[in-house]
Design goal:
The chain is an alpha+beta fold. It is about 15% helix and about 30% strand. The protein has 7 helices and 20 strands. The strands form 4 sheets. Strands 1, 2, 7, 8, 9, 10, 12, 13, 15 and 18 form a 10-stranded mixed beta sheet that branches. It has a 4-stranded antiparallel beta sheet with strand order 17-16-19-20, with no helix packed on it. A 3-stranded antiparallel beta sheet has the order 4-5-6, with no helix packed on it. A hairpin with a 6-residue loop joins strand 4 and strand 5. The protein is globular. The relative contact order is 0.19. About 5% of the residues have low confidence.
Length: about 325
């Protein structure tokens, strides 16, 4: 089944790469079928299926980012294609328009090489656990197969009774990078999206699995992501965005990225000391205070719950728990 990347774009003068605020999304038709690529000019508005208009545009977000590495660095010869220019032209012409009501949004990037996570990276989250902020980023991982779309269902596993929420800002890597210094980290960031780092606390915080995080973090459907990748140029201040979680309409997390202990560019530079980051790789940057296990009494997700997650300017996830 063909997969096409989709780009949601809103007009603004902030974006220095395109003439628009750039929101990249992947989607299918409402009833399934082929997966498509589109551009959304305003939130809730129609989508322009850009890769359906021009086959030279890569058919996944990952391929778009891989192709964009060179295109963001240098001008192309007359016989070559600049992907960003092509997207801009298609948006301006308004071709291949699809109503939002006719699509199902997927996670905005999939099949990446790495899905890294940062723990204990908000001051409030450290405080609610009674621990000191770490001296360096605490890194662990989930798997790309854990990712689900922004409106897909979270499936509670039968082996856990303590499944918790964690709203997270996600870094999307736009170019290959290795052994960066702190000042170079920003150059490798393409944009940002939202994720929930769903966690089985009775597997993460016990002696099971030798005390390792992995099994508690990497169960099926434990990483809702989306709805879009917003380019970094479209965000005025990544270090001042509200981060919120609701369960059944009740606010559970109400933080701000200003509380991040290690900022996005610092995280990228740090991880690049250990491994090569590739276009399409994603990094979950940690969660603010308000998680379920730290509440008194503790609270956990139950079947039938509706989990909603919002980061200012990036969109909103809505996932039912089954």
């Amino acid at each position: 089944m063909q997969l096409l990347a989709a780009i949601a774009i809103k007009e603004s003068e902030k974006c220095s790469v395109l003439k628009y605020n750039c929101k990249f999304v992947q989607f299918t038709g409402k009833d399934g079928g082929p997966q498509h690529l589109g551009v959304q000019l305003v939130q809730g508005g129609d989508i322009i299926a850009v890769s359906a208009v021009d086959s030279r545009i890569p058919n996944t977000m990952k391929k778009f980012l891989e192709g964009g590495d060179d295109m963001l660095k240098k001008a192309k010869r007359e016989d070559e294609v600049n992907l960003l220019t092509m997207v801009e032209r298609i948006v301006a012409e308004g071709r291949s328009v699809i109503p939002e009501t006719d699509v199902t949004f997927l996670a905005p990037v999939t099949k990446m090489d790495k899905l890294a996570c940062v723990g204990l990276n908000y001051s409030g989250h450290c405080e609610e656990q009674g621990v000191s902020p770490p001296e360096s980023p605490v890194i662990f991982s989930k798997f790309p197969s854990n990712i689900i779309g922004p409106r897909d269902n979270i499936m509670l596993p039968s082996i856990s009774e303590k499944v918790d929420w964690e709203a997270e800002l996600v870094i999307v890597i736009g170019k290959k990078c290795k052994a960066l210094n702190k000042d170079e980290g920003e150059e490798c960031i393409f944009g940002y999206t939202i994720a929930q780092d769903i966690t089985a606390r009775d597997w993460q915080k016990s002696k099971r699995n030798g005390g390792q995080f992995l099994l508690g973090k990497a169960m099926d459907t434990f990483c809702p992501m989306g709805p879009a990748i917003v380019t970094k140029e479209a965000i005025c201040d990544i270090n001042n965005l509200s981060v919120k979680t609701w369960v059944n309409g009740d606010i559970k997390q109400d933080g701000n990225t200003s509380e991040l202990i290690f900022k996005p560019h610092e995280i990228v530079a740090y991880i690049s000391q250990f491994m090569t980051l590739l276009p399409g790789d994603v990094i979950l940057t940690g969660t603010p205070a308000g998680v379920g296990f730290a509440r008194k009494p503790p609270e956990y997700l139950q079947r039938g719950d509706v989990l909603e997650t919002e980061i200012e300017g990036l969109g909103r996830l809505r996932n039912k728990v089954l």
